[in-house]
């Protein structure tokens, strides 16, 4: 049995060293990979559309979704650390085979919906920046994601750093646009009061939720934390668990700020104006050029492109984690990339409105959230699996409340759309 006086392995010794910056950095990384999926092109579409149509009305949805995401990703990271296995692997081991197959099928659909948003968003960005037609742009984005994925062959650190750098550029672009837009602080604060304006605002709220608490990244995050740092016993696992919580708070705090900035910029620049088409990505780009200047429009398009490239890499990795975990099977990365590209390329080829496709894809993601959340809550409350990292009762209650809210929101949407 390992006690608090047991020798600490080198990575943990570094993390606990008196040099706080270097030590904390070793424990950071997995949540930044997750965070880039929280600022993917689907977020651009849902948040910008919400701000342009409803002003500051849905600020509370963005904030609430991000707080929920912090809790969910903390549980997910802790699950991988405590068990040494990803969420799909745990589902395969503990769920009946028919249910496990169903879970795999819906998870693959969720991953494909994710890739749809990311490739379309990147293609739109290439069109806005360089005039590249959407279909060739989708092919370019899908192919370019291989360069980022290739970094995984060198270990987890280069991949995490590359994703964090891309996230940093996205943050910078929206920070500049937010300062330039100068949104009304009092109106933004009033947007923290929960309220809706009809079914369309509910649809956008579900889209924001699906674009923030993303099912595929729940699977990914659980696969990034097992065996990342060698640990021996509960004492050392608690050290790493504390670092993972900090990782989540920083990374998702940054992602949440970007999401909020997207909505605030659109609300202050477009809501109540006569600028046309500002509920589309192309319209937002043109509108920013009109209201804030060319630099703001270019910054938006560059951030959109980097978001598409980074998030589609994470999405492809998610598909690998899903198949390997639920079915214990692998297919070559090139074949998987081609399969997941097909829906996005089909949408681009037939001329469906890209922004509409992005928003609807995020609604699909919202319907996939309960199937990822429920197993996370089930497993993290089991002491036989989690050891000392088992959930407290309050934590489980909060996670159950989030899951219940998502299920209720989706049921209401189905009822409204069918009426």
TrEMBL record:
It comes from the Bacteria. It is a multi-pass membrane protein. It is found in: Cell membrane; Membrane. InterPro entries: NRAMP_fam. Pfam families: Nramp. Keywords: Cell membrane, Ion transport, Membrane, Symport, Transmembrane, Transmembrane helix, Transport. The chain crosses the membrane at residues 21-39, 59-81, 163-182, 202-225, 246-267, 287-312, 333-352, 358-377, 397-418. Belongs to the NRAMP family. H(+)-stimulated, divalent metal cation uptake system. HAMAP family: NRAMP. This is Divalent metal cation transporter MntH.
């Amino acid at each position: 049995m390992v006690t608090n006086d047991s020798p600490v392995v080198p990575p943990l010794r570094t993390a606990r060293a008196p040099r706080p910056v270097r030590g904390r950095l070793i424990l950071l990384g997995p949540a930044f990979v997750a965070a880039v999926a929280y600022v993917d092109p689907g977020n651009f579409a849902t948040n910008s559309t919400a701000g342009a149509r409803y002003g500051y009305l849905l600020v509370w949805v963005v904030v609430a979704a991000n707080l929920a995401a912090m809790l969910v990703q903390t549980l997910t990271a802790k699950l991988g650390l405590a068990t040494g296995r990803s969420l799909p692997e745990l589902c395969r081991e503990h769920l009946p085979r028919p249910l496990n197959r169903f879970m795999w099928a819906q998870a693959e659909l969720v991953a494909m919906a994710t890739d749809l948003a990311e490739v379309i968003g990147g293609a739109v960005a290439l069109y806005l920046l360089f005039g590249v037609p959407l279909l060739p742009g989708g092919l370019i984005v899908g192919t370019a994601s291989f360069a980022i994925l290739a970094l995984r062959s060198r270990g987890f650190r280069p991949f995490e750093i590359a994703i964090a750098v891309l996230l940093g550029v996205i943050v910078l672009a929206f920070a500049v646009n937010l300062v330039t837009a100068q949104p009304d602080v009092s109106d933004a604060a009033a947007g923290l009061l929960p309220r809706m304006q009809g079914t369309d605002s509910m649809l956008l709220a579900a889209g924001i939720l699906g674009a923030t608490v993303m099912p595929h990244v729940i699977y990914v995050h659980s696969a990034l934390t097992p065996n990342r740092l060698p640990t021996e016993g509960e004492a050392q696992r608690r050290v790493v668990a504390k670092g993972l919580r900090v990782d989540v708070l920083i990374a998702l705090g940054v992602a949440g700020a970007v999401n909020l900035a997207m909505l605030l910029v659109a609300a202050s620049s477009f809501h109540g104006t006569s600028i046309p088409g500002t509920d589309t990505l192309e319209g937002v780009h043109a509108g920013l050029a009109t209201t804030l200047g060319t630099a703001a429009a270019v910054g938006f398009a560059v951030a959109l492109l980097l978001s598409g490239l980074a998030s589609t890499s994470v999405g492809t990795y998610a598909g690998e984690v899903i198949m390997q975990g639920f079915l214990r099977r692998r297919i070559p990365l090139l074949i998987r990339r081609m399969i997941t590209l097909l829906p996005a390329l089909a949408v681009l080829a037939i001329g469906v409105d890209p922004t509409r496709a992005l928003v609807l894809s995020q609604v699909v993601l919202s319907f996939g959230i309960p199937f990822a959340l429920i197993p996370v809550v089930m497993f993290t409350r089991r002491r036989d699996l989690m050891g000392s990292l088992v959930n407290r009762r309050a934590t489980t209650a909060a996670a159950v409340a989030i899951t219940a809210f998502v299920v209720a929101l989706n049921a209401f949407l189905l009822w409204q759309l069918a009426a």
